[in-house]
C-alpha cells in the first residue's frame, strides 16, 4: 500500500513537472515569436538629479504588448527567458532599440539630450556571453551613440556567480560605457567589496526607501558615504514622496528615480514631455 502510494505521488509529481516544462516551452516559443513580430517595446523612466531636478538618464524597461494578454510586465517573462540563451536575444533587442532611441532623441533635441544617458538592464547569463562586448560595440556603432551615454545595469548575483563577468565588465568599461550595480543591498555584496567591483554607479534598492525605521535610514546613509569614498555615484530607486526626496537630499544622495519623479512611459509619451 505504501509502495503504490509512493508511485501515485511520483506520477503526480511527474505530471506536474511535465506540465511545468510544457508551460515554459510554450512561453519561450511565444517570446521568440514575439521578438520576430515586434511585440516588445521599451518604456523609459527618468533618473533625476536630486539637487536641481535635472534629467540625467532614462532607464529602458521592457514590456510585452501581447496580442492576447495585453501589456505584460517584465517580471512575467524575463525570468523564463533567463532560463535559457533566449535572454541574450532579448538583451540584444533591448540594446539595439535603446541606443537607437536615445540617438534619435538627441538628433531631435541636441540641447536637451546631449548629456542624458540610457540605462539597459543586462541579465547574468547575457553578461557571461562571449558575444556581449561585440553586441554592445555594434549597437553603439549602428546607432551612432557615444559609449559614455550608455549605462549597463547589472545585479550583484552576476558578479558572484559568473567568473567571466569581471573580464567582460573590464572590456565594456574599456569601450567607454558605464556600469551600474542594480538593486544594491538585496544581495551579498558587502560595502567593502564595492571598492573592487568594476562598477561606476550604485543603485540602492527600493526596499530601503520604503522603511522609515532609523536603523534603515542609517544604513542608507552608510551606503552613500561608502559609495562616495569609492568614487561611485548613487541612485536611490523607488522614490515615491517628497519626504523621501528631502531625506535623500539631506544625506547627500545625488540621483533619484521613482514614481514621484516620473513613471516609466512609452517612447511617444516620453517625447511629449521633452
Ligand atoms: P529594475 O531594473 O530594478 O527596475 C526598476 C523597477 O521598479 C521597474 O519595474 C520600475 O517600473 C519600478 N519602479 C520605478 N520606480 C518605482 C516606484 O517609485 N515605486 C515602485 N513600486 N516601483 C518603481 P518594471 O519595469 O516592472 O521592471 C522590473 C524588473 O524587470 C527590473 O527591475 C529589471 O530587473 C527587469 N527588467 C526590466 N526590463 C528589463 C530588460 O530590458 N532586460 C532585463 N534583463 N531585465 C529587465
Ligand atoms: Mg534596473
Ligand atoms: Mg533596481
Ligand atoms: Mg529589480
TrEMBL record:
<protein>
    <submittedName>
        <fullName>Diguanylate cyclase (GGDEF)-like protein</fullName>
    </submittedName>
</protein>
<feature type="domain" description="EAL">
    <location>
        <begin position="24"/>
        <end position="274"/>
    </location>
</feature>
Amino acid at each position: 500500500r505504501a509502495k503504490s502510494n509512493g508511485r501515485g505521488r511520483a506520477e503526480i509529481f511527474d505530471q506536474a513537472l511535465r506540465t511545468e516544462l510544457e508551460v515554459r516551452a510554450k512561453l519561450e516559443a511565444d517570446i521568440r515569436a514575439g521578438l520576430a513580430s515586434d511585440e516588445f517595446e521599451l518604456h523609459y523612466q527618468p533618473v533625476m538629479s536630486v539637487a536641481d531636478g535635472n534629467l540625467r538618464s532614462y532607464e529602458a524597461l521592457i514590456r510585452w504588448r501581447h496580442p492576447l494578454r495585453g501589456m505584460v510586465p517584465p517580471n512575467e517573462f524575463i525570468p523564463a527567458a533567463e532560463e535559457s540563451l533566449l535572454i541574450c536575444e532579448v538583451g540584444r533587442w533591448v540594446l539595439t532599440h535603446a541606443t537607437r532611441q536615445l540617438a534619435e532623441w538627441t538628433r531631435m533635441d541636441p540641447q536637451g539630450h546631449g548629456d542624458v544617458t540610457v540605462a539597459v538592464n543586462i541579465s547574468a547569463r547575457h553578461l557571461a556571453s562571449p558575444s556581449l562586448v561585440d553586441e554592445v560595440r555594434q549597437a553603439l556603432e549602428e546607432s551612432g551613440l557615444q559609449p559614455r551615454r550608455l549605462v549597463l545595469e547589472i545585479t550583484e548575483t552576476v558578479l558572484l556567480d559568473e567568473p567571466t563577468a569581471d573580464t567582460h565588465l573590464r572590456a565594456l568599461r574599456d569601450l567607454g560605457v558605464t556600469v551600474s550595480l542594480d538593486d544594491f543591498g538585496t544581495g551579498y555584496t558587502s560595502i567593502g567589496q564595492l571598492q573592487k567591483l568594476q562598477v561606476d554607479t550604485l543603485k540602492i534598492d527600493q526596499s530601503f526607501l520604503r522603511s522609515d525605521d532609523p536603523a534603515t535610514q542609517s544604513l542608507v546613509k552608510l551606503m552613500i558615504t561608502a559609495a562616495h569614498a569609492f568614487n561611485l555615484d548613487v541612485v536611490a530607486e523607488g522614490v515615491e514622496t517628497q519626504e523621501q526626496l528631502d531625506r535623500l537630499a539631506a544625506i547627500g544622495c545625488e540621483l533619484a528615480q521613482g514614481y514621484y519623479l516620473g513613471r516609466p512611459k512609452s517612447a511617444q509619451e516620453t517625447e511629449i514631455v521633452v
